[in-house]
Amino acid sequence: MDDGGAGPWDFIPLLCMIILLFIGIAAIYASHSYYGGKQWYAQIIWAILGLLIYFATAKIDYAFWYNNAHWVYYISVILLILLWSPMGERRFGALRWIRVFGILIQPSEPAKLGFLIMLGAMMARTEITTFLNSIKNLAKFFLVFCIPSVLVFLQPDLGSSLTFPVMFFSMLYISNLSKKFFACIFACALVLLATVAFDICSYRNFLDKKHLSDEMAAEKYENRSIFPMKDYQRDRIISFIFPKSVDPNGIGISWNLRQSLIAVGTGGLRGKGFNSGTQAKLGYLPKSVASSDFIFSVIAEERGFAGALIVMLSYILIIWSGLRTANCARDRFGTYLCVGISMLFLLHICINIGMTIGLMPITGIPLPFLSYGGSFLLICCFLQGIIQSIHRYQNNFT
Asked: Counting beta carbons within 10 angstroms of the beta carbon of residue 323, is it exposed (0 to 12), middle (13 to 18) or buried (19 or more)?
């Protein structure tokens, strides 16, 4: 598509993306080198495809997504529904992948893209004033929010389902809705948090009365609880709040976190050197998570605080560029998209790094441009390509 009239490129986020991709590929190689793993080969291919998608998306005027938002949303929802078809593939007890022409796709990732574009387009077409005057429109927004978020939660994928309310309310926050609306939402969030806390306490009492460990209680409590959580999700929360009571020896559910803390702590200022880490290579940090959810631990061990700081600064610049572009966008659609995308990245970064250093419960949320996985990497490049398009076409009012 012709990009005539487009402005200059914003090279800051592009440079940061490339730096992160190189660091991620090197960390994936190091985490599996002892086993002779080939995931880093696949990650190189995904990175090349991701950059091609990034440049192609950046050259398209983002008005294209405004005009075709409903189709993007419908396709993303259909992909989620296909999980419960013969194409769905269950792994580690979760139904999160579909196989298309021999390739595994995680539909929760394109669902984030479809939701962002659809909600941004709907909000841009709607005059939002007070809460009461906009109640019908808010009901439509909420429906668009509920469909993908519920389908993702049912997989179950608690981590990915948490990203949808963050995108939803961050985009609503920059609209003209009254503060009373957000006060009501905050009150509802407190009620939900209290309900989760009550459920967790009930689960812990159940374990104590039955004299069960977290492994022995698998699926025994979730069948009697009305709160839609899996027992392993409850175990993760309890292991974060009361690690000694659930796994006093550190060899059960808190094993990954303890090994991650060792990896981060022993990295020091400059790290142990490329391919010289031990936690992932020797299997203390399991290979099933070392290259994905805990990739930051591998980087911190081998590159030390200096390498971790480069990663953090790269993320800060990417998010800053996204919010700066939101402020300069030519229309509300561009602003909503930039804010929603930036908050999505910020959530992934905070939760993933937070869980590797023990500040957040383990939820299985990957780290943008670093964690192994094609679906997530391609969607990250796609989303950043949209922000680049908004930056380039910010003065194009045709």
From this structure: middle
Written as six digits, the tokens of 337 are 């998209």
pLDDT, tens digit (0-9, with 9 covering 90-100), for 221-240: 776 776 767 777 777 777 77
Mean pLDDT of 199-207: 75
In the chain, domain spans: 11-198+287-392
Q: How far is CA 32 from CA 20, 107, 109, in A?
A: 18, 26, 25
Beta strands in the chain (DSSP E): 88-91, 94-100, 103-105
Residue in 110, 28, 35 with CA at minimum distance from that of residue 73:
110
Task: Give 366's DSSP letter.
Answer: P
pLDDT tens for 321-348 read 999 999 988 889 999 999 999 999 999 9
> 46, 375 in Cβ contact below 8 A?
no
The number of angstroms, rounded, from the C-alpha of 266 to the middle of its chain's C-alpha atoms is 27
Q: Which residue type occupies 136?
A: K
- How many other C-beta atoms are found inside a 10 Å radius of the C-beta of residue 381? 26
176 in helix, strand or coil?
A: coil
Q: Report whether 73 contacts 65 (CB < 8 A).
A: no
Distance CA 294, CA 364 (A): 9
